[in-house]
Design a protein that fits this description.
The protein is mainly β and 660 residues long. It has 11 helices and 44 strands. It has 3 domains: 44 residues, no CATH class; 464 residues, YVTN repeat-like/Quinoprotein amine dehydrogenase (Methylamine Dehydrogenase, Chain H); 119 residues, Immunoglobulin-like, CATH 2.60.40. Bound molecules: sulfanyl-(tricuprio-$l^{4}-sulfanyl)copper and dinuclear copper ion. The site of sulfanyl-(tricuprio-$l^{4}-sulfanyl)copper has 11 residues, from β24 and β28.
Length: 660
């Protein structure tokens, strides 16, 4: 670790030695003069060379961290190596994606589970990825992500980085406060967003207070099955405030979840009738409500059957929540957005977009306020409001537009400042004294970012043991940072080095993101992940993560006709499919099974059929089954769509559909 003073005193020689060390790893050394010349010719400063040395990844070397970023409107997840900020792959989730063969023969059933009333929703607005946790620490096994537009949650298996399940929330129409997991991934939390009558029912906006409701859904996760267990999931009904970001308690706050809200005013807009628009009505009050929910108690209430089935889903109603002491509110200033639980679980940090402070609540004080009923009143629905002063620990003035907070290992907290376009570093007070050079609850420094930062992500920065080292600012605008590819500009992920303490927090890399508007990302130590590079056996079905007894095997390739159904058992290996001729009659149903019988790493084959909208990606060992009706007579050359070998172009065959 280099302190700020060291960097300040850095000489050219030191910088260049670092740069050369990184740039010439394993090859003959260049002279210092060469690097100096390059730096001069390109106008690079000391800081530029240092940043390059910190982020440059020599060929063949691997990144220390892996970042899982939401893909925004792309409906995907991006996997990015850090600190090099190289995009390693996208993971198709809510949106069909041809390279991965997602939704073009395989994955349709998973995608269809996210349909509403049989109507396809084939895009997603992914917001908040959540890595599975064990004892509050990332365990590298699963990844969850929400879709804000249609209130869906997806499960991704980190053995093969593929989406295994999509669940559609039967109550809320859109979601935002998710996904977040409880410390042992018992539940995946999906907070709602805009209050509505549930299940897309109709009610005029004049009946907002009576008929519109908020919610939080507790999706039970079954690790063994690798699926959300819908049968054992439940929701809590909440007042029609717009529940926003949420976080799960841990350690000192284990058993609780926290949800922000905006629109405790219950404003209903109406700009066209000269009523205050939402943006004004929703921000009228000085405070909104932080929701504090005892989920362990709620689970007991659910298991005791004290629920109402609404839209076929078990719901703990507001009245039950109040009677059982599951739900409390407390005021939070002003137009709140992020709520983030500190590593030890003792403090809950809330940012109000229109308040220059972050507000820090003490879990200990919350617990004693609940026990001693220190209420300042009740809301319109009878929910007790914990007295603000009784639960407040501190407020720290950081700047304009604070949004989201992450944590370091050393008592530092980091908060994004949207309006300032900056990231603030500040110190947690209380029990974090030792090793913290600054006094308690103090702003330390701010680093400008470009521009309009939303979330930030620190390495394991929302776990019980943050790693520090790196922070990424997920910037909404990039304005002048890159070549403008037309008026739709990329977002900018800016990497910030947070290894030094105090005021030193330089931006060391800009990564353009030109695929959707990502929001949040989680960053895990790469060695916690243990993905397969080939599937464990030949004939592996990624959906069940087991060997498929029906998978075609070498030397057992065949075509079988059973009435109007034609079953194809095909293998793929460099550089042919077997069989190569498939002749059927118009109107036949085709059940086509293909196994990639390769065992070599990266020996992927595609399988594409023209006019039938089929494209598969078959990774080594993988088997797939596609079914379709040969409703279009003709001659269709199918081919392998991955450049797999020198004779890849020859890896093809003919589907011949004879007219009736
Ligand atoms: Cu963009 Cu998390 Cu949807 Cu804040 S959210 S910025
Ligand atoms: Cu197999 Cu190209």
């Amino acid at each position: 670790m280099s302190g700020p003073a060291t960097i300040g005193r850095c000489t050219w020689a030191l910088l260049l030695a670092i740069a050369i060390g990184a740039a010439t790893h394993g090859t003959h050394a260049q002279s210092i003069t060469d690097v100096q010349n390059v730096a001069k010719a390109r106008g690079l400063t000391n800081a530029d060379l240092l940043a390059a040395a910190k982020t440059f990844m020599p060929s063949g070397q691997k990144d220390e961290y892996i970042m899982f970023s939401s893909g925004g409107h792309s409906g995907q997840v991006f996997v990015i190596g850090m600190p090099s900020m190289r995009l390693l792959r996208s993971i198709a989730v809510f949106t069909p994606e041809p390279w991965q063969g997602w939704g073009y023969g395989v994955g349709e059933e998973v995608l269809a589970a996210g349909d509403v009333a049989g109507k396809p929703n084939r895009w997603g607005d992914t917001h908040h990825p959540a890595l599975s946790e064990t004892k509050g620490d990332y365990d590298g096994q699963w990844l969850f992500i929400n879709d804000k537009i249609n209130a869906r949650v997806a499960v991704i298996d980190l053995r093969d980085f593929e989406t295994k399940q999509i669940v559609k929330n039967p109550l809320t129409i859109s979601d935002h406060g998710g996904t977040f997991v409880t410390p042992d991934t018992e539940y995946v939390i999906e907070g709602g967003q805009y209050a509505t009558p549930w299940g897309a029912d109709y009610a005029p906006i004049s009946e907002y207070k009576e008929k519109y409701r908020g919610s939080v859904t507790m999706w039970k996760f079954n690790r063994k099955k690798g699926r959300i267990d819908i049968e054992n999931s439940f929701a809590l009904q909440l007042p029609p405030y717009w529940q926003d970001l949420s976080d799960a308690g841990k350690l000192a706050s284990d058993g609780y979840i926290f949800l922000n809200s905006l629109n405790s005013e219950m404003a209903t807009g109406g700009i066209q009738d000269k009523k205050p628009p939402f943006e004004a009505g929703v921000s009228r009050n000085a405070t909104d409500y932080l929701h504090i929910i005892d989920w362990k108690k709620a689970e007991k209430v659910f298991k005791a059957g004290k629920v109402e089935k609404i839209k076929g889903f078990p719901v703990i109603t507001l009245d039950t929540s109040i009677a059982e002491g599951l739900l409390y509110l407390t005021p939070e200033p002003r137009s709140p957005h992020g709520v983030d639980v500190a590593p030890r679980g003792d403090f809950i940090v809330v940012s109000g977009k229109l308040d220059p402070h972050v507000t820090i609540y003490s879990m200990q004080k919350i617990k004693s306020a609940i026990a001693s009923k220190k209420f300042s009143g009740k809301d319109d629905f009878g929910v007790p409001i914990l007295d603000f002063d009784a639960v407040l620990e501190a407020q720290v003035e950081l700047g304009l537009g604070p949004l989201h907070t992450q944590f370091g290992p050393d008592g530092y907290a980091y908060t994004s400042l949207f309006l300032d376009s900056a990231v603030a570093r500040w110190t947690l007070g209380g029990t974090y004294g030792s090793g913290t050079p600054e006094p308690d609850w103090t702003l330390v420094t701010k680093t400008p970012v470009h521009y309009n930062v939303g979330h930030i992500g620190c390495a394991e920065g929302d776990t019980v043991s943050p790693d520090g080292k790196y922070l990424v600012a997920f910037n909404k605008w990039s304005v002048d940072r890159f070549f403008p590819p037309g008026p739709l500009l990329p977002q900018n992920f800016q990497l910030i080095d947070i290894t030094a303490s105090g005021a030193t927090m330089p931006v060391i890399y800009d990564m353009p993101i030109g695929v959707g508007e990502p929001h949040y990302a989680q960053i895990i130590k790469a060695d916690k992940l243990n993905p397969w590079t080939v599937y464990p056996g030949i004939g592996w079905d990624p959906h069940t993560q087991s060997l498929d007894p029906w998978a075609p095997k070498a030397k057992m390739e065949r075509i079988e006709r059973k009435g109007d159904t034609v079953e194809v058992y095909m293998t793929a290996i460099r550089s042919h499919f077997n069989p190569e001729h498939i002749t059927v009659k118009e109107g036949d149903k085709i059940v086509w099974r293909i196994t990639n019988i390769e065992r070599a790493i990266d020996a992927v084959h595609g399988f594409a059929v023209p006019q039938y909208n089929i494209n598969l990606s078959l990774e080594p060992g993988e088997t797939a089954k596609i079914e379709f009706v040969a409703d279009r007579p003709g001659t269709f050359p199918f081919y392998c769509s991955e450049f797999c070998s020198a004779l890849h172009l020859e890896m093809m065959g003919y589907l011949m559909v004879e007219p009736r």
